[in-house]
Amino acid sequence: MSKTAYIDNQAFSIVEGETILSFIKRYKDKNLIPTLCDAPNLDPFGSCRVCSVEVALEKNGPVKTMASCHTPVGEGQYIYTSTESVKALRKNIVELVLTDHPLDCLTCEVNGNCELQTVAAQVGIREVRYPEGENHLHRLKDLSHPYMTSDLSKCINCYRCVRACDEVQGEFVLSMAGRGFDTHIIKGFNESFMDSDCVSCGACSQACPTSAISDVFQSKAIYATDTTRTICTYCGVGCNLEVSSSNGEILSITAPYDAEVNQGHTCLKGRYAFKFYNHPERLNAPMIKRNGKFEKVTWNEVYNFISDKLTSYKNEFGPDSMAGISSSRCTNEENYLMQKFFRTVINTNNIDGCARVCHSPTALGMQRTFGTGAATNSIDDLKDTNCIMVIGANPTDAHPVTGAKLKQFAMKSDNVSIVIDPRRTELAKYATHHLALRPGTNVAVLNMMMYYIITEGLADENFIQSRTEGFDEFKKEILNVDLDKLETISGVNRSEVREAAVAYASSPNAMSFHGLGVTEHSQGTFTVIQIADLALLTGNIGRRGVGVNPLRGQNNVQGSADMGVQPHQGAGYLDITNDKINKKYNKFYGVDVPKHIGYKIPEMFHAALEGNLKAIWIIGEDVVQTDPNTQKVIRALEATDLVIVQELFMTETAKYADVILPGASFLEKSGTFTNGERRVQAVRQVVEPIKGAKPDGQIIVDIMNKMGYPQPDYTPDGMLEEISQIVPFFEGITWERLGKNGLQWPVAKDGTDTQILHKKDFKRGKGYFEFNAWEETQELVAHSNDYPYILTTNRELEHYNCGAMTRRTANEQILQDDYLMIHPEDAQEHLINDGDYVCLESPRGKVDVKARITDEVNKGILSTTFHFPEIMINNITGDIHDSEAMCPEYKVVAVRIRKSKGKLTQIFVK
Ligand code: SF4
Are 276 and 207 in contact (CB under 8 A)? Predict the structure, then answer.
């Protein structure tokens, strides 16, 4: 029998632990009870009391007035929502709030969308009975920040902003100071937004019920005529966005509270960094380079030019003389089309994407261990885990919304958190265990961890017995590792490793998260395999709160690989070398597709330098700025006869193009993105593409048709229908079924999706243990004598990857250039002061970067970002790749340093 309580004498079932307010909202009009301090994504607070109701223990019995937002509902309670006395109380509370609130509604930004105004109307205030008292109009407005503003004369002390800063973002920048009438919000040590440690996520602005804290885009103003729900274009978290627009212009972005991914939260990129979409520097016409200069041409002319050129290369040099690099910024449907074009029209498997330079070792390593190269669980599982292990990732900067959740988890004292990272990242500061290993020694530390799990008797024998294979051989190898050597080379004390291993293995549920600090190494795939081995060894797979969860980099890097943007697997990860699969593709596409594996990106550049690549088509990928060894990439592009670049802006790569195709941003087209937890979500067009640009999918379709392959026009529903017929795990996905929160693949024919993989079996049958010994990277073997420092790379919150989009927004005012993190002792040794330029020299060349002296890195280790082309840090990164997946080793670069006289021209070794 379910328990009941009564709302205005009517009986309803209650849910254990829910508040009176949520109980009432479930059964009655959600606006029946007015609220001010309550917010959908914050804990109950009970400060304003506007939500008061009367509660009796028997029908019409004696009542007690209670704030409904934070009082748990009890069995048998009689709740009276609208008695005269409670209505009078609410009215009186709001009247008191209004006595010091400026009554300038007509000129207020949030007029018509102000919660105080709404509640005042709702409780029936037509006049304020109290005499006008003191006010707070003397409080100065804070207009210091490019996105956030505050006018604290409008503050009603509801604490929603303070709580959002604490409970959602975990930043603790906002707090309350003063007493009584002087109680007021402060930022940091009573600073401006700009001077404080604010990370500009905008959670406070969205939480504020008035215009006390707001944003420059006036997101709470009501003059938008349209709102469109879509998905953020930046990182693999996949936050849902509510975009307001009017007359074809985007006004502002907020975060929907009912989004399963981000629950009303975003970072500053998703919420504020959208103004690039109509930036004056957008490419707005196709162009062909003639006599060294770009000339604008018509779409028809450029299509003919491309079609003629590609056809002639195919006839003269064969299909493998051409290659494509597709874009993880583009939709699944566009990526599907790009690989289809190369396989069916050109007849080559020379198609690859940015996963090559980020998570290709994840896909390969997890495929080798589990059979599927994707996250096993969902971020929501954090609610059910006891331990997180974050390795080679800095999620508070690179995956900010997930990062905030991980930080909230780490800050709670009962939880165990393990961070394995050379840098003392923000998360590491809160972690129970931080293993600050030397870059390039992940394999060493993880082998030590597994040694201790086995020798301490913490391996899950039942799980190993029933669900895995290869353990006996693996165990033999692990027990033979040389702990002395591994301790010395990793720089991590063995007792610290043992403690972390014991903590992970003895937690009832443990989840791991990894990033590019795992994959971008010469032993990247092996490290991924070890992370998967750890999960197998401890039985942390196949249920909620466990698993292996790669933090995918770009918004749709998962989707581009799913769609077949890989030289060895077609759409749906099907092996293109397999006869049966080949027949399936041939039948489906109506043409013969090739069976031999194509070029990976580094192999494309190599082929170009050998004179074997005649044409390359690159969509939305700035390889010159973001791929390693920039000068080599440039030489490869210069050696290629035809370089087609499809882009939003004249990027560093586009400058080397022979043909430019102006594509469309995520706000100008529809389709789907797949986030890091396999969630396929609908990207909905907000505005028309800027004049002269076209959706990238339509450009590919046009060229397919021009070259004789009949492909219907690009529509998201039409493309999804085609994809669902060839990609097995998309079988049940339709545009209509995606709804608000998308579906996590695999999706069965009836539309049922999958939150957790490998519950009973692995895709490959049994989970496979594979041992790999640590090996020093050739970068250090060859160069560490002459270049004694190790440079590693990192990302910053404010900019995304090459920064082509974020540098064209006000984010640039918040972070204006790349910088080099250097330990105080190293700085002292080289007489380097904070802000000095440091000359970083590697075997490939030299660049000058501004120093930031910090103990976030250990002595001998340097770290820098690569968001700004002026620095072009990849001029000094090398050619070493992961031995298995060919992902470049950005994370270990041998360098030497000296104080530079200023910002010098970059010098390169040819
Ligand atoms: Fe966009 Fe990632 Fe920020 Fe979410 S966390 S708003 S997906 S950049």
Answer: no
299 has pLDDT over 60: yes
Cβ-Cβ contacts under 8 Å for 873 (sequence gap 6 or more):
793, 818, 840, 847, 849, 864, 865, 866
Tokens of 198: 């604010």
With vertex at residue 288, the alpha carbon angle to CA 287 and CA 292, rounded to the nearest 5 degrees, is: 120
**How far is residue 695's CA from residue 123's CA, in Å, rounded to a whole number?**
49
The whole-number average pLDDT for the span 777-801 is: 93
Question: Which residue puts its alpha carbon closest to atom 1 of ligand 1?
Answer: 270
Pocket of ligand 1 (CB under 6 A): 232, 234-235, 237-239, 262, 266-267, 269-270, 399-401
SS3 content of the chain, % helix, strand, coil (to 5): 35, 20, 45
Averaged pLDDT, 84-92: 96
One-letter amino acid of 292: G
Give the integer Cα–Cα distance in Å for 538 and 601: 36
> How far apart are alpha carbons 886 and 895 in whole angstroms?
22
At 134 the pLDDT is 85
What whole-number distance in Å separates Cα of residue 202 and Cα of residue 217? 11
Closest atom of ligand 1 relative to the 266 alpha carbon = 6
Query: CB count, 10 Å around CB of 227?
Result: 16
Residue 816 has a pLDDT of 87
Q: pLDDT tens, 269-295?
A: 999 999 999 999 999 999 999 999 999
Return d(Cα 811, Cα 875) in angstroms, integer: 25
Please tell me the number of Cα atoms within 13 Å of 721 on its side-chain side: 7
Strands 510-514 and 547-550: parallel
The yes-or-no verdict on residue 907 having pLDDT over 60 is no
Q: Select from 241, 176, 166 the least CA-distant residue to 404.
A: 166
CA 238 to centroid of ligand 1, rounded, Å: 6
Convert 80-113 to b/e letters by CB count within 10 Å (16 or more is b). Answer: bbeeeebeebbbebbbebbebbbeeeeebbbeeb
pLDDT at residue number 329: 93
CB atoms closer than 10 angstroms to residue 480: 10
Of ligand 1's listed atoms, the one at least distance from the Cα of 261 is 4
Distance 358 CA to ligand 1 centre (A): 18
Strands 893-899 and 837-842: antiparallel
Q: In degrees rounded to 5, what are phi and psi of residue 325?
A: -120, 115
Rounded Cα distance between 705 and 693, Å, is 19
CA of 231 to the centre of ligand 1 (A): 9
Protein residue with least CA distance to atom 6, ligand 1: 270
Q: 442-455 and 471-479 are packed helices; what angle lies between their axes, rounded to 10 degrees? A: 100
The token pair at 666 is 């995520």
How many Cβ atoms sit within 10 Å of the Cβ of residue 175? 16
Q: What backbone torsions phi and psi does residue 730 show, to the nearest 5 degrees?
A: -100, 10
3-state secondary structure of 477: helix
**Nearest CA-CA partner of 358 in 493, 514, 166:** 514
* pLDDT one-digit tens code per residue, 661-685: 999 999 999 999 999 999 999 999 9
How many other C-beta atoms lie within 10 A of the C-beta of residue 612? 17
Query: What is the chain's length?
Result: 910
**If you average pLDDT over every residue of the chain, what do you get?**
95
Q: Which of 601, 389, 636 is nearest to 515 (CA)?
A: 389
In 3D space, the residue among 345, 349, 326 whose CA is nearest the CA of residue 663 turns out to be 326
pLDDT mean over 847-875: 91
Under the phi-then-psi rule, with left for phi > 0, alpha for psi from -120 to 50, and beta for the rest, what region is 248?
A: left
Q: In angstroms, what is the span from residue 200 Cα to ligand 1's centroid?
A: 12
Contact call for residues 255 and 264 (beta carbons, < 8 A): yes
pLDDT score, position 903: 55
